[in-house]
Amino acid sequence: MHLKLCSSQMKEDSNSLRERVLNLFKSSRGALTQKHFEKEFSDVSLTTILPILNALQKEGMLDVLVNTDRTLSWQLRDQDSTEKLKSLSDLEERLVYNAIRNAGEDAASLKLISSETKLPQNRIPRILKSLISKKMIKEVPMAVGHKQKVYLLVELEPSEKLAANTLFAGDSGVDAEFISILRTACLKYLQDKAISASHIADPLERRQASYVSCEEIHRFITNTKICTVSMTVQDVQCVLEVLKFGGELETRITSETSEQSTSFGILYRLATQTPSVANLANIPCTICLCRKDCRPDGPINPQSCKLFQEFLEF
């Protein structure tokens, strides 16, 4: 009888500790290291927590990550992506999906997927196409000069270091079709905003209502799914700046002051007079995200830029 009570008590303690561990993961929303557990569970030894972490990993609830200093960290898996993984019956699709999921917002290249899954590279494109058709992953164009693309889960947005890449695709450099779609979408939204504002009687309020932020336009384009390619706020801002340089838009600076700091933003609206010709907007440098690294004696330079040469010839 005493042994049964002890066994029951141990099981109850284990379940309680399991809940504490899961709650810690949910509240932290990130990877946890050994130091996190030692700090948060000062009343429990790490040797007691490790079996629970191993059990959660086997259940598919945790991912184990190897840090640069060769220590381990644990991260709670997104349940939506876990359910999607379980829904895949094809083993190779599951391997590829899991490799892309592990890459997170940094995305996974064909080479990385092949390395993670041990599948030959010539077999992976078919699997990627299948996962894209199932709306489980999406592709993001690589930087200028590269033909390959990288892949990430459909619900994720590219990380900062990938943000610039969506404006570029293949050997041709700037993805003209993508920019054209963005340009049309931006102008359409701003035109609708101007029409809506024109019905306001007060001139000051009418002027204020005609301005929109870059983030607002980005939300509109994202929600309406105008672009099938992954897009960032920076992409939209690049196009808006081109339209501004071409005289089609005008801007004003806004500021917001808090107790700690002052932040500034840019609002856009249709220009009162739109010129018929805007040569400045055609300069490729205005939308080239490599312009900060472009210099006469550098690896990226105006002399070898095909887009700039074509502009000069035109």
From TrEMBL:
GO terms for cellular component: RNA polymerase III complex. Keywords: DNA-directed RNA polymerase, Nucleus, Transcription. It is found in: Nucleus. One of its GO terms (biological process) is transcription by RNA polymerase III. It holds the Pfam family RNA_pol_Rpc34. PANTHER family: RNA POLYMERASE III DNA DIRECTED , 39KD SUBUNIT-RELATED. Belongs to the eukaryotic RPC34/RPC39 RNA polymerase subunit family. DNA-dependent RNA polymerase catalyzes the transcription of DNA into RNA using the four ribonucleoside triphosphates as substrates. Specific peripheric component of RNA polymerase III which synthesizes small RNAs, such as 5S rRNA and tRNAs. This is DNA-directed RNA polymerase III subunit RPC6.
